[in-house]
Amino acid sequence: MANQLDNARILIIDDEQSIREGSERILTRMGCTVFTASRGEEGLEVLDREQIAIVLLDMKMPGIDGMDVLREITKKYPQILVIIITGYATVETAIEAMKKGAYDFIPKPFEPDQLRIVVNRALEKQRLTLEAEKSELARQRTLLDLDREKSRVRTIIESLPNGVLVTNASGRVVLMNPACRQCLGLTPAQETGHPVDQYIADEGLCQLIVEISEGCHVDYDDIAPYEFAGPGETFLIARARPVVGEKNECLGTVVNFSDITTTKVLDRLKSEFVAKVSHELRSPLSTIHEQLALVMNDMVGEISKNDAHLLSRAKEKTQGLISLIGDLLDLSRIESGTVCHESKPVQLEAMLSGIVDFLGASAQAKGLHLTLDLPEQPLAPLTSDPLALESIFGNLITNAIHYTPEGGEIKVAADQAGVNLRVRVQDTGFGIEAKHLEKIFEKFYRVKDNKTRFITGTGLGLPIVKGLVDSMKGVIEVESEPGVGTTFTVLLPVSRT
What we know:
Layout lengths: L1 H5 L2 E5 L3 H13 L3 E5 L2 H10 L4 E5 L7 H11 L4 E7 L3 H9 L4 E5 L3 H30 L7 H11 L3 E6 L4 E4 L1 H7 L18 H11 L12 E4 L5 E10 L5 E10 L1 H38 L6 H31 L8 E3 L1 H18 L3 E5 L8 E3 L1 H17 L6 E9 L2 E8 L6 H4 L23 H11 L3 E7 L3 E9 L4
Parallel strand pairs: 1-2, 1-3, 3-4, 4-5, 12-14
Antiparallel strand pairs: 6-7, 6-10, 8-9, 9-10, 11-13, 14-15, 15-17, 16-17
């Protein structure tokens, strides 16, 4: 196994000769056998002829682009690890590529050490995979040997690349594999048998594991993945599940740990890129918008109707771009955790009344009936960021106005639901088909059909609403029926810890 990886066969697919030659020199010195291709088609031909372990793949090439090549590799050669070569301006493309099967990425321009690190990581991944496959084959060959079953299972677990931790019914750790010790920054000499909080520093995760071990969570769907900061500057995600016995009793918990540091870095780079570009564009666009308005005001009666229409459309489009940039900056602030910090007591009835009064003119101009239904008894004060609340309900009511045809109704209602305040925004609009409901909170996703294709928008309003509600530890739900209407329900805790 070691010999196979020491002489790893690597293919470089990149249209830049300097990248190909430089990478080939570095990898050859590492003891790898290197093949090169300047186009996607040429690279696929090499894969048909040679046994390749790792592919370094450029995203932007003439002919077949990198995403198409990646699709062919994952389809025909799923065992090959693909490392994306990309520039900082295409980080989002790299993220999409990793979602579609790429193992890792390296940004241009890169240093030799960066290339060595990412390739060594891929080689280590393949080594662990081969070890796991070898252990599995050994387990199958000796399946009838019951005396060695425990040893075989332990071997398989210890060879897994992800961290695995198992507790008993009292929340004490009974098993950890080496990958788990590495994730949690534990030494190989640290023994098992102690409460889980002696191994994991995150208090919330420890509490969740103890609750699962004691049988408080028997439904798998009830247990969400848990993200937390690991040792150093790493980020981990834990997926915990109960170990259930023959009589449906809980015997303990098994926890799987994955390192998501790379994903977090990609998210940070993406947010920084969006914020930088947005700031650079907003000022010139605002100037253009103001100049267009000035020209239209000063030249009334001096320009033709056609020129006036063109100027009006240009002004409308620049305003749309300015709104898009504002939404992108809002999303960047939400994702970086720099919103919802100016919390203060808010009387929800007064806030909703102000929003409904403000948007009432827009609804009336479209021939819609907008109403607000408040309970007789005052609602408990909500401790939150007033600007964030205005953004949530302003976006939801504005969406209802946009997607409700003339003569329709929009009802906004608020009441107390246990420890939460509940706000419903119900319309008699076009409605949303079931296949779209899971995607409407994704960035830039918009439902377009014959009824809605003329409605302008950025596709960022609902993602902003979802991000703000999540930051308040609230919940947003949607119910819709095409041709009948849509209801958005927001639940916000009265006090947040």
